[in-house]
Every structure is written in C-alpha cells, then in structure tokens.
What we know:
Elements: E1 4-7, H1 11-22, E2 27-31, H2 53-56, H3 73-86, E3 93-95, E4 99-104, E5 116-120, E6 125-128, E7 130-133, E8 140-141, E9 153-156, E10 170-174, H4 178-189, E11 193-197, E12 204-205, H5 225-239, E13 263-264, H6 267-273, E14 277-280, E15 283-287, E16 290-293, E17 298-300, E18 303-306, E19 310-311, E20 324-325, E21 328-329, E22 331-332, E23 337-338, E24 344-346, H7 359-376, H8 385-391, H9 402-421
Parallel strand pairs: 1-2, 1-7, 2-3, 7-24, 9-18, 10-11, 10-18, 11-14, 12-13
Antiparallel strand pairs: 4-5, 5-6, 8-19, 15-16, 16-17, 20-21, 22-23
This protein binds flavin-adenine dinucleotide and NADP nicotinamide-adenine-dinucleotide phosphate (NAP).
Flavin-adenine dinucleotide binds near residues 13, 50 and 56.
Amino acid sequence: MTRYCIIGAGPAGLAALKAMLDSGHEVDCFEKSDTIGGHWNHDYDALHLITSRQVTGYEGFPMPEHWPLFPHRDQMLEYFHLFADEFDLRRHITFGTSVDRVEPLPTDGPVGSAGWSVTTSDGVRREYDGVLVANGHLWDQKIPDIPGAFTGKQVHSGSYRNTGDIDGRRVLVIGSGNSGCDLAVDAAQDHFDTHIVIRRGHHFQPKTFFGKPRSELAWMQEFTFEEQDLLARLMMRVSVGEASDYPGMPIPDHRALADGPPVVNDLLLYWVQHGRIKVRPGIERFDGKTVHFSDGTSDDFDTILWATGFHASLPFLDDDLLVKQDGVPLRVGGAVVPLDLEKLYLIGMIGARGPQPPIYPVQADLAVRMIAIHEASPRGFVPIAGPLTQAQSHEWRIDILRPLWLEQVEQTKVALQVIAASQPVGASA
Ligand SMILES: Cc1cc2nc3c(=O)[nH]c(=O)nc-3n(C[C@H](O)[C@H](O)[C@H](O)COP(=O)(O)OP(=O)(O)OC[C@H]3O[C@@H](n4cnc5c(N)ncnc54)[C@H](O)[C@@H]3O)c2cc1C
Ligand SMILES: NC(=O)c1ccc[n+]([C@@H]2O[C@H](COP(=O)([O-])OP(=O)(O)OC[C@H]3O[C@@H](n4cnc5c(N)ncnc54)[C@H](OP(=O)(O)O)[C@@H]3O)[C@@H](O)[C@H]2O)c1
C-alpha cells in the first residue's frame, strides 16, 4: 500500500493534508509543536493581516463575515483551527514530533523514485512513497553580517512579541519589509524613541483605496495587471504623495509597484510625518551601543529589532540534494518540485504576491496529480521531476508576481497531462 508523509501542520501542511485525504491517500502528518497553525501561534501581538478577510482564506472556506476587514493574528489562528475541525484533520497529525531526516531510498533510478525514508525526533524511521514538505519558510531568522558588535539588546522580528521585549527607550528597527514597518509602528505608538533603517526606497502601499482593499475594488479588476499597477500609483500619489514628502525617506529607483517589494503599511508614513519614527540609511558598523550609519551620522540605541527576513531552510534534507540560488532551493512545477528530486513536494515554498493560504491547495493539487501518475504506473514511478527540470525555468524567487506563478501552475498541469498521456497504462493527471 502507498503511504505519504506531510511535514508540518501550519497553513500549508493543513491544506496538503486535506488534499491528500480528499484524494483517498493514507497520510502521516508530523508537527513538531503541540498545535496547528504554524507561526501564527507566536507572531507579535500587534499583527493584523495585510491581505483582507475575503481573499485570505482557503477557497470554499471563507473567514466568518463578522470578522474585521483585516483580521488580527488571533483570528487568523482561529481560522486554521476552524478549518482543521471542519475537515477532522487533527487525528492524522502526530504532534510534538519533529521530522529530523528525510533521505531518498536507495535506487538505481532517479533520486527519490523509490520513495523516501523519514526519521522523526522519537528515533523512528519510516518509509514513504512520497513526502510533502510544508515546514514554512519564515522561521529561520536572517541577521546580516555587519562590522563591529552591538552590545545592547537584540531581538529578531520572528521572536519579537510586543514592546515589553524592548530595553531602554531608544530603539532601532533594521529592515523595512512588512515586519520592519509593523515593529517600528508598534514601538512608536508605545512612545519609544523609534528609528528605522530603510536602505533603499520603496513604495509603501496603503491597505485601502476608497475604504476598500485593492483586490476588492471591482472596477480595478477590469484593467490589466500593468494598468492596475499604474492606477494604484496614481491613487497613492493623491493620498500618500512622494518619498520626498517624508523626512529621510530614500527615493525608490523603480516606478512600478511590481518592481519593488510588496510593503503594505499606512502607519509607518503617518508616524514619520509626526516625527515619532525617524528614517535612517544603511548601517556601516556597530561600536558598543553606537550605530554608525552610511551617511556619516551615528547614534546610541538600547535595543535593535532585526526585521531582516528569513532563510528558506530544509534542515532535514542533505544540502547536496538541492540546487540553490542565494540560499533558496531552485524549483519547477509551480514551485512544488525541487530540481530533479522525484516524489518530494514542497508546499508553501513560494510567496506569490497576494494572500498566501489560497496558494497551498493549488500546490497540493499539483502534488496530488503527480502522485496519481506514479500510482497509475505498474512500476509505481514515472519520471516527473526530471522532465519538468529539463523543460521549465528554474524558479529562484520566493517573492514572485502572482500572474507569473499562476502561469507556471497552468504550464505544469499541461506538462503533467502530457506525461500521463505518454504512459502505457492510462495514468491520469
Ligand atoms: C508576520 C507575518 C505576517 C504575515 N501576514 C500575512 C498576511 O497578511 N496575509 C497572508 O496571506 N500571509 C501572511 N503571511 C504569510 C504566512 O507565512 C503564511 O500565511 C503562512 O502562515 C505560511 O504557512 P506554512 O504552513 O507554510 O508555514 P508555518 O506557518 O511556518 O508552519 C510550518 C509548520 O511546520 C512545522 N515544522 C517545521 N519544521 C518541522 C519539522 N522538521 N518537523 C515537523 N514539523 C515542522 C512548524 O512547527 C509549523 O507548525 C505572514 C507571515 C508572517 C511571518
Ligand atoms: N502584517 C503583515 O501581514 C505582515 C507582517 C510581517 C511580515 N509579513 C510577511 O512575512 C514575510 C517576511 O517579511 P519580513 O518583513 O519579515 O522580511 P522581508 O520581506 O524579507 O524584509 C526584510 C527587510 O530587511 C532589510 N534588510 C536585509 N538586510 C539588511 C541590512 N543589512 N541592512 C538593512 N536592511 C536590511 C531588507 O531591505 P532591502 O530591501 O534593502 O534588502 C528588507 O526591507 C513577507 O512575505 C511579508 O509580507 C506580513
């Protein structure tokens, strides 16, 4: 009998689990913590979604209508509990058990074609016909190498909970992605002397236009992707103005929103104009509690909040199985398939712009289609990762425009139909 393993019971793992159960598979899901919901269990208290309630849930399972337009972290977590309960997912999950090793079973064929061996933290080794990896890509905290040493308190956004984590009054937030903006606003609103490092200009997009998220303005959807980008910039010009309207703010070197990082935050700019958040350039070096900036200025700080992002890590896989670019495993097949690795499916190793939960069932569906092809073959294996690696471009991005990723998904569905049709005994995709 065929049996499958899922690593992680966060939003991606839950979607993968439902898809595998719906398609009649035997599945063991291992979750290293004692609960479902992934990082939403320990994100900072001030966190609200940047994507709206209506578009952020899984397709066919909307968030409750009475929730706010931009739900709080706790509501997001509750949503995943509602989902797990509705589809009775918990009984398939082994909690408190981490997957420590994932190794291809020996074979003369392509790597992974004979299945995978999975060793869990309780020392048990099991063999599976396929592994769906949903361990998240926003947990391995990235702290850049900067000359010198800072001797004040340091906390990464992945560990920050609230302003109780800040020592002293002077705080420097490093990084201006969505985490950096949220942390700087949190500190400023609690009257800390707050500074933020923004080393290159970008467009801080407001959460709403005309009181509605961009994705819910019906008339916007009439336009092409490029036209929507232009319209959003024109509306931002009216409500936000330009970078030069905000003291210290670097000027973006790109025009289109699509060409810069997707940072959505109204309050950072608000507090910059109220003098409660000061914008600083890149850091040259640390010296005790003194931070030297690239414009020649320096200041003392009590606490640094690193909001410098995360590494995409698969610590249970041998590094030489993966081909990486800038530390990110290269993938094909809608970012589900690591190059040339058969029967290993990455669910959630992509951040196609817009709401994330709807991505995972789409990726899980691709994995289910690939599994169906293997299972329909008398040998239990049909080359899929190999041909996709040959035919498709190798995706290096996590942050990718949604239409590009959706195009990759559609191309993959077609490729799988071709692979299935070329099999002697009616494999179907
Ligand atoms: C601060 C923040 C705000 C965000 N805001 C939004 C937003 O507004 N809208 C939006 O759409 N998206 C948002 N996102 C994106 C968010 O990452 C996704 O929505 C989603 O939570 C990712 O789910 P995941 O299951 O891939 O990862 P995770 O949530 O990280 O879950 C991974 C799970 O795998 C488990 N695990 C890891 N390794 C192992 C192992 N070896 N063995 C067993 N279990 C393991 C972990 O314990 C965890 O439970 C935000 C992300 C962050 C960090
Ligand atoms: N409210 C929300 O919904 C919310 C909140 C937080 C996070 N998220 C999501 O979670 C994901 C991770 O976001 P994130 O903000 O944690 O990470 P991120 O998007 O990777 O941003 C990292 C930031 O760190 C900066 N940085 C890196 N190295 C630096 C250095 N040496 N000096 C100065 N700055 C440096 C980057 O600047 P450069 O651009 O110059 O490299 C960038 O601004 C994203 O998908 C995000 O949308 C959502």
